Amino acid sequence: MGATGGLTEDRDEEDSLLARARSGDGSAFEQLVELHAPAVYRIVAGHLGETDAEDAAQEVFTRIFLGLKGFKGDARFATWVYRIATNVALTRGKKKRRRLGFENSASPAPEPEAGEPGPHESLARGEQRDAVRRAIEQLPEEFRAVVVLRGIEGLPFEEVARVLGILRPTAESRMARAKERLRTLLGRIMGD
């Protein structure tokens, strides 16, 4: 079986789960959640940080559940899910910045993974991850959304454009401009 066959089977399985979930099958909805939970978590964490990601992911799946019957299928289900995740993250980010008086809401760096060599290298990697996360948080929303979907989640530009409701060249342009800003921001952050 080729790669295309596997993608078709995955899409057929997802479509079957979606149809069952829309007709009220709770087990099918749970399977859809399990299928998309890692990507949803990465998307919201990319916008909000690890601290707020769990609550945001829960909100995403609540919205999906409530909107499931209204999903028309104009786009892939995953595209719809990523759009909801992005919108929830952006909305929560705005509220968080307002609540904190636009202060930097940096969360602590993630714990180094087990099996990494030496404490010094682990510390350096943790500091780099924290610097990248803080730099991403400082990007304007339209750039941050593209960076999270393309750079962190690895979606192709065509899918990024669909999720954000923009044209592919716009997504590519925003990514290029985001990379320039990230270089500048990382230079400032790492220079601190």
Number of strands: 0
Helix content: over 70%
* Regions with little confidence, pLDDT below 50 for 5+ residues: 1-5, 103-112
How is the CATH topology of the largest domain named?
Rna Polymerase Sigma Factor, Chain: A
Order of helices and strands: HHHHHHHH
- Would you state the CATH class of the largest domain? Mainly Alpha
In this structure, how is the largest beta sheet organized?
none
SS-derived structural category: mainly alpha
- In CATH terms, the superfamily of the largest domain is RNA polymerase sigma factor, region 2, helix turn helix motif
The global form is: globular
CA radius of gyration is: 18 Å
Strand content: under 5%
Q: How many domains, in number, for the residues?
A: 2
CATH architecture of the largest domain: Orthogonal Bundle
Helix segment tally: 8
Global mean pLDDT: 83
Please give the alpha-carbon distance between the first and last residues.
Answer: 52 Å
Q: What is the gist of this entry?
A:
This protein is mainly alpha-helical and 192 residues long. Helices cover 77% and strands 0% of the residues. It has helices spanning 3-22, 26-48, 50-67, 77-99, 119-138, 141-152, 157-164, 168-191.
Describe this structure in words.
The protein is mostly helical. The chain folds into 2 domains: 9-103, Rna Polymerase Sigma Factor, Chain: A; 118-192, Arc Repressor Mutant, subunit A (Orthogonal Bundle). Helix content is 77%, strand content 0%. α2 (26-48) crosses α4 (77-99), α2 (26-48) packs across α6 (141-152) and α6 (141-152) packs across α8.
